[in-house]
Amino acid sequence: MKRVGRLFLGAAALGALNTANARQPLSRTGRSSVLAFAVGWPTSELPLHAIGWQALATLGFIRKGALRTPAGLAGLGLTAASWAGLHRIWKDSLPAGEIFDEALREALGDELDAGDRRDEPMTPKPALELDRRRIAVPLSPWRKRYVAKESTGLSYGDAGKRNTLDIWKRPDLPADAGAPVLFQIHGGGWVIGNKEQQAMPLMSHLADQGWVCVSINYRLSPRATWPDHIVDVKRALAWVKENISRYGGDPNFVAITGGSAGGHLCALTALTQNEPEFQPGFEEADTSVVAAVPIYGVYDWTNRDGTGRADMGPMVGKLVFKKRIEDAPEVWDHASPMSWVGPDAPPMFMLHGTNDTLVPVEQARAFVSMLRAESKNTVAYAELPGAQHAFELFDSPRSFAATAAVTRFLDAIRAREGHTVDV
């Protein structure tokens, strides 16, 4: 009985520690920050599920008599405190929509209302709603609804599977619709990931609204060496410009987004439109975009202002660049979106969480400040209190609020550009 009580106390302590880490990460530097992310990310976005798992474990310990011991009673107290903390995390995530609205209104003013009033011929569906079913099963099979077999794994280059893309669209979208296009780049630290893992709620919602969305694979390190990654992104974007009209998309209205490493590639692509350095062999191809939405992206590999991670350099140098920054400073500099900030940047909307332990929120703030000082275009920024890295992957309050906010931002840009869909 005493052993069961001690086991319950230990499990309760781990649960409470996990809750505390989800509310305020226990580490933001070094390898421990990766662990803080790994356990804190799902808990911070799915706190109700954490309560459920802890409740099941607690019930099991109670049935074995844990509450007949002082240690077991202490464990119950810790568990109750953990549940209270998890409930607080859930409540704190609910105002995300208000935060996004304030950020967009600050950046767009009355243009936000113009975008909200767009009269779309595809009869837009209401904004995504986080109903009980989606709360219970936070990974909806979005992809199955909008990716037809003939639009899967299309080749845009000669690197096999790593040079393929998927096209998302409504089955009833006419081939000559001229619909707006979203170009999605997955993350994964430039070494893992694929086109079927991220931005599912966003692409499904936009496809529902009559958009055409494109998710791509690109070559990954350590097999690939920089700038292979950005060259692939540019090559895929050039393919979209040349071919997307056959799938109902408008090649003259292509916006770009991506998260984490995909956020880095998204920002770099947006700021280096038609840059020959990153378009070897297809220098004349059009790689311009009308808007960019980098999400929790890396904006500088040189850590020029101290807002990045000092420990990222060795990993990136070994796996991605295959050379140290001391040996090729210009390569590292040109790979950093901060180095390309200028007056001609397209409209940009950055999203980041304050609890991000993989990419410091301070770097996002610095990047936004640079853009606002230099760019002649719209710069919007939303910072989500309590959000970890990869906060928009699950069907969660923050994820759905982010989806609605990105849609509103892009619709405002469409209204500004006078873009219409011809059905």
As a percent range, the share of strand residues is 5-15%
User: What is the percent of helical residues?
Assistant: 40-55%
CATH topology of the largest domain: Rossmann fold
Query: Architecture of the largest domain, CATH level 2?
Result: 3-Layer(aba) Sandwich
Output mean pLDDT: 94
The count of helical stretches stands at 15
Outline type:
globular
Structural class assignment? alpha/beta
Question: Which residues sit in consecutive blocks of at least 5 with pLDDT less than 50?
Answer: none
CATH superfamily of the largest domain: Alpha/Beta hydrolase fold, catalytic domain
With strands numbered from the N-terminus, the spatial order across the biggest sheet is 1-2-4-3-5-6-7-8
Distance between the termini: 71 Å
The total beta strand count reads 8
What is the number of domains? 2
